[in-house]
Write a structure and sequence with these properties.
- Helix 4 packs antiparallel against helix 5 and helix 5 runs antiparallel to helix 6.
- It is built from 7 helices and 10 strands.
- The protein has a single domain, classed as 4'-phosphopantetheinyl transferase domain (Ribosomal Protein L22, Chain A).
- The chain is an alpha+beta fold.
Length: about 250
């Protein structure tokens, strides 16, 4: 039964604007971003500009810009009333009370919930308009990690047993369990520290949540959501594919 969580049930589709809806996860590799190609004043709110300026590394800046452009594309694409809203009038701000990243539309009362994940330059973004139980996570699969040692320190014993059953599957299972825990934490608004030692498969069943995962471009990706919803993943190869929503240089 547990093998279902290690199968590749999640499909990552090529980006097509006509297929994107409010239950879409958009992903891209942010490492290709050249800041000279973007007019940040037109794309980021004053709050976001202040945040990105505080980011120390170029990778962190790339990930920040990429995730905000993905979220703003989703807002402008999925809501006809905001199709012509300037990108810098959509501001993303973290809300400590709900533990969610919220999007505020200038001069409106609209506040949208969202979900982000990033790892080693690879980013993903999604809206959660209905604020239902939903979360996703992306993690770079590294074969150099001490999987058994880390699992024994953090994970449930049954999870450790699964990881150490076969050396060939150790990395895949370690990272699959990790992305499921992270996605579950986001879906249930629980700190990841509360979900490290519990058995994640039991937690998913108890919460009556669905989980789908895959490995794509060397990253493990998991989505956790209510069983009545169906989220789809789309991979963007170039930010210019979003040019219809923004005035990119």
């Amino acid at each position: 039964m547990l093998n279902q969580y290690f199968d590749q049930h999640l499909t990552v589709n090529p980006f097509s604007a006509s297929d994107i809806n409010a239950q879409s996860v958009l992903m891209l590799n942010a490492e290709s971003i050249n800041f000279a190609d973007f007019a940040l004043d037109n794309l980021l709110s004053p709050f976001e500009q202040a945040v990105i300026e505080r980011r120390k590394s170029s990778k962190a800046k790339q990930e920040y810009l990429a995730t905000r452009l993905l979220l703003k594309f989703l807002v402008k694409h999925c809501f006809t009333e905001f199709a012509n809203t300037s990108a810098h009038h959509i501001s993303s701000e973290f809300d400590d009370h709900s533990s969610k990243l919220l999007l505020h539309i200038k001069n409106t009362d609209t506040v949208l919930s969202s979900c982000l994940s990033h790892s080693n330059g690879f980013v993903g973004a999604a809206l959660n308009i209905e604020r239902v139980e939903f979360g996703f996570d992306i993690e770079k699969v590294s074969l150099k990690r001490p999987f058994e040692k880390l699992a024994k320190h953090f994970y449930h014993q049954q999870e450790v047993n699964l990881i150490t059953q076969t050396e060939q599957c150790a990395a895949q299972r370690f990272f699959r369990i990790w992305t499921l825990k992270e996605a579950l934490a986001k879906a249930t608004s629980r700190p990841i520290a509360q979900l490290l030692s519990p058995h994640v498969f039991t937690e998913l069943a108890t919460a009556n949540l669905n989980a789908k995962s895959t490995v794509f471009e060397g990253f493990d990706i998991s989505i956790v959501n209510k069983k009545s919803t169906d989220w789809q993943c789309f991979y963007i190869t170039d930010l210019q594919q979003l040019s219809s929503a923004f005035e990119l240089k």
